[in-house]
Write a structure and sequence with these properties.
mainly alpha
Length: about 70
Amino acid sequence: MAKLAPKVRPDISDWTAADLKSWREKHGFDQNQAANAIGIGRQTWLKMETGKRDIDLVFYLACVGYDATKG
């Protein structure tokens, strides 16, 4: 019997916790500042940066949007 492909989650980005931390450090933010920059709570940021929560596509896009507006 053939294995089924894993379920695709289009609402989850392909960013890792390390990518999120790298983005934060690139901007010189602490976790609270990074969370505020994209409009989420610090606990949500902390869970994503430590790998306890997947990085939702909308949060990834918020980071990309932040970069686009800051040049």
